[in-house]
Amino acid sequence: MKHTHVFLLVLSMFIGACSQQDASTHRRVIYTLPSSYIGTILIINSPQEMESQAFREHKIPASGVLIVKKPINEGWDDEGIIEFFYRNNGKLEEITGWAARTPKDTPESRADPEIRVFGASVGTYESIHSDCKILTRSYYIGTNTDAYESVNFFEIDDYVKNHAIDCTGLEPGTLRKQHLATQEKREKEDESSSSEDPQQGKN
């Protein structure tokens, strides 16, 4: 029994030391928002040749979309310790409430005035609007009622349709090439069909 106690003590010390070491190596990432911002926060990660940093602060613009440059050798989904703050007259006010998802829609939950960070949604996005696979992370900031009503809610597709994405360092996509090839094929078929029937459109 004595040997067992010593083993458990050593094991406990080892686990504690590992936990402290892991905690000390976590990166701290702070996102600051415009005062009173409510809505989707969309973060697009763009790998770059740069050094890793233990602390980063990013200012979210009024659009809610931020393109973040990160070291190529750093896991794009490994953000470390994440915190959100409002920028209010030069002061930072932390948003301390977090929720994995919106709660059930009830009168009680709608009456809750606390602003929370909902999410996060992490993934790789690809569409016909971009030449590469886009690494994204998104959150929603607001009260339960804001989330229920989808106040200022948008998805990455809404953004990419109207904004060009710098694909430097990102994996090339295939959907856009396939879409353009299909579109070109249809246009050629339409032209061929029109040339075969010169009377078309006269009737």
Question: What is the strand and helix layout of this fold?
Answer:
Blueprint: H1 2-25, E1 28-34, E2 39-48, E3 55-59, E4 65-71, E5 81-88, E6 91-94, E7 97-99, H2 107-111, E8 116-125, E9 134-142, H3 144-148, H4 156-160, H5 175-196
Parallel strand pairs: 1-3, 1-5, 2-4, 7-8
Antiparallel strand pairs: 2-9, 5-6, 8-9
What does this molecule look like?
- Helices cover 30% and strands 31% of the residues.
- It contains five helices and nine strands, in the order αβββββββαββααα.
- The protein has helices spanning 2-25, 107-111, 144-148, 156-160, 175-196, and strands at residues 28-34, 39-48, 55-59, 65-71, 81-88, 91-94, 97-99, 116-125, 134-142.
- It has a five-stranded mixed sheet with strand order 4-2-9-8-7. It has a four-stranded mixed sheet with strand order 3-1-5-6, with no helix packed on it.
- A hairpin with a 2-residue loop joins β5 and β6.
- The longest helix has 24 residues, at 2-25.
- It is globular and about 70 Å long.
- Residues 1-24 have low confidence and may be disordered.
Mean pLDDT: 77
Approximately how much beta-strand content do the residues carry? Answer: 25-35%
* Major sheet characteristics: 5 strands, mixed
Low-confidence regions? 1-24
Provide the succession of SSEs. HEEEEEEEHEEHHH
Fraction of residues in H or I helices: 25-40%
Oligomer classification: single chain
| DSSP, total strands | 9
Principal-axis shape equals globular
- Count of helices? 5
Radius of gyration from CA coordinates: 25 Å
* End-to-end separation: 100 Å
Strands ordered across the widest β-sheet: 4-2-9-8-7
Report the structural category. alpha/beta
